[in-house]
Amino acid sequence: MTPDNLNASELRERAVHWFTRIRSGDATPDEVEACQTWRQEDPEHERLYRSVEFFWDASSQLPQERLRAILAKPDQKPSKRRVFTRRQFGLGLATVCAAGVVAAVALPNLLHGEALYRASIATSQGERREVALPDGSRLMLNVNTRIDVAFYERQRVIELISGEVFSVVESDVQRPFIVQAGNTEVEVTGTRFDVLYEHDEVSVSVESGSVAVTSGEWWSRDKQQLKGGQYVAIGRDGASKVEQVQVENITAWLEGKIVFDNAPLERVVAEMNRYLPQSARLDAPQLRDYRVAGVFNVNDPDAMISALPAIAPVQVYRLTDGRIRIVAR
Which of 78, 96, 188, 298 sees the fewest Cβ atoms within 10 Å? Predict the structure, then answer.
């Protein structure tokens, strides 16, 4: 069974219920909080909610005749079809979703035509992979990364479902290259940049060229321009200020390395956990902000974690179940 012991259709209806309730403007603070909790309970909840949100956003670009055709029941006669406002359209989504139409209508196809190329690509624990795309662009996927690729006549779209991807984009001003991660969208025509999507947070680093980063919920979108050597992080509280960074440190994983430069120990352990076969836990609250500098080889995770006591006042214990415990020395 799917999460919440609901089938796919019931989960889709739940997503529509929350979206239309929030969008109606009548939701109470408790309902807003309950909706947010439901979305965060499971990645599938968030994916379904986002699909309804996308359907809503895209509806404004569809002709009224097309909207009526989507929403009309099979036994309705043309003369009885009425013009729908966007609010009515949103409220009518429950009926549409219950019938499975949201998935079948395939809005990207309506807006951009049939995809010229599609692919789903994933890497597992400890695996990194390079992928060549039909336009000559290249993608480097870090460990535990999942992406969906769709090329249309006027748009190249990479959906980063989870993990990290470095893109080397062939320039095409007529067909932008877009990476979508959660409610963040990175658009370029040609550049080299890195996107990490983990724990509902997105970070974007640009090695060369420039990108436009759009983030936030549909009712309050924020847009920032980044160029080579710049970085931005997007979390639940919004986007950070654009920072100047050493991008080669952020993208060192391309060479099988992790580089830490005055990084807090808590973040160092979290980053190491992306490569370790069994997770390490930092049981030293007083050392969370202890600053660490070092270069580690991700191709040898055991040596990586064993080297930690050399750069921080900690001891590493390996538990019988394979997990790792890090305590103050």
Answer: 78
